[in-house]
């Protein structure tokens, strides 16, 4: 059984996606829409003038698809165009398209950024490309050092673009960053981010590592405001290829619990990240440290000192027992002498 549900038309697809054509005089273009509708709708294209008046235009329609073609474009054809669709269930509001003369691109908008101690990630929304393909150029500087990154490609669907800067980026620096767009017709105006300051490198110190069965309990000091995760690699001390890695993202754990590979002795490497940036590392850390190690050291020292004292006392009495008396040490043994 074939069941068809009636529905009013809604837009399923439009071309171009940004609904803007940039062309030269004498060229030909087309605008296209496809509706989701049952029954198939009636389409009506219009040209809308700046004074609010409009004129109906003929189009090529087939089922749920409609196509408006404009040929041999003249200067007066650069304007706004709309299309509506309706059936006996309902209709959609006018969908606007625009025909523009080729031009320089519009500048990027909605600038944002994210900084770590080792990188700047810049994001923006592309402006209209002016018709021809556009690229972007970023200029950034600090302490008199200036760098350019050119030919950054446009997004294929005019969505936001993100670009990561790493060269010349260091902790606790203020950067001035600018961007502009370029196409075959020229360049847009330059727009700037507010000055971006990179944070300091986070502090990180392993205080103690205690082995309990198949787990290691780790206490550390971490500046977690500048960190996303810490990668802990526990490896066998004799076979480094035998290791277990744990990504720690919950910094409220105390102690942090990580798994261990098979073996009896271990060595640990720590890697501190913000996003994809490796901020710092602490390799070849041995188990121990912290309060438990200090207490053991104290107990060991006391026990060693006691053993040394006992050994000294025994040695003294042994020496006294077996040493030969000297002449000056003669003792009167009988009254006659």
In short:
By secondary structure, the protein is mostly beta strands.
Low confidence ranges: 290-299, 327-337
- Per CATH, the architecture of the largest domain is Sandwich
Distance between the termini: 142 Å
**Share of helix among residues?**
under 10%
Top CATH class of the largest domain: Mainly Beta
Number of strands: 26
Give the amount of beta strand, in percent: over 45%
CATH superfamily of the largest domain: Immunoglobulins
The rounded Rg comes to 40 Å
Category by helix and strand content: mainly beta
The main β sheet shows up as: 6 strands, antiparallel
Stated plainly, the CATH topology of the largest domain is called: Immunoglobulin-like
How many domains, in number, for the residues?
A: 3
**What is the arithmetic mean of pLDDT?**
87
Spell out the helices and strands N to C.
EEEEEEEEEEEEEEEEEEEEEEEEEEH
Apparent shape: elongated
């Amino acid at each position: 059984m074939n069941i068809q549900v009636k529905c009013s038309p809604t837009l399923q697809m439009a071309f171009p996606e940004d609904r803007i054509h940039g062309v030269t005089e004498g060229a030909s273009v087309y605008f296209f829409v496809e509706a989701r509708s049952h029954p198939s709708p009636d389409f009506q294209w219009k040209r809308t003038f700046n004074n609010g008046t409009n004129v109906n235009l003929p189009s090529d329609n087939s089922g749920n698809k409609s196509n408006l073609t404009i040929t041999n474009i003249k200067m007066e054809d650069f304007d706004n165009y709309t299309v509506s669709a309706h059936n006996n269930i309902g209709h959609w509001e006018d969908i606007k398209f625009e025909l523009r003369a080729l031009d320089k691109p519009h500048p990027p908008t909605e600038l944002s950024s994210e900084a770590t101690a080792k990188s700047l990630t810049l994001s923006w929304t592309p402006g209209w490309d002016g018709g021809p393909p556009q690229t972007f150029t970023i200029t950034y500087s600090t302490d008199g050092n200036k760098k350019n990154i050119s030919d950054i490609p446009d997004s294929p669907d005019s969505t936001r673009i993100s670009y990561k800067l790493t060269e010349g980026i260091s902790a606790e620096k203020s950067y001035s960053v600018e961007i502009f767009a370029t196409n075959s017709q020229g360049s847009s105006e330059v727009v700037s981010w507010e000055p971006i300051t990179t944070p300091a490198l986070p502090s990180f110190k392993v205080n103690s590592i205690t082995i309990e069965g198949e787990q290691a309990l780790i206490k550390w000091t971490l500046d977690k405001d500048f960190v996303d995760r810490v990668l802990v690699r526990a490896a066998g001390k004799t076979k480094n290829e035998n290791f277990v890695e744990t990504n720690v993202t919950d910094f409220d754990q105390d102690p942090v619990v990580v798994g261990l590979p098979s073996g009896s002795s271990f060595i640990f490497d720590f890697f501190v990240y913000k996003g994809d940036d490796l901020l710092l590392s602490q390799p070849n850390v041995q188990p121990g440290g912290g309060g438990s190690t200090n207490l053991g050291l104290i107990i060991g020292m006391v026990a060693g000192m006691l053993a040394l004292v006992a050994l000294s006392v025994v040695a003294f009495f042994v020496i006294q027992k077996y040493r030969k008396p000297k002449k000056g040490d003669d003792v009167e043994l009988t009254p006659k002498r």
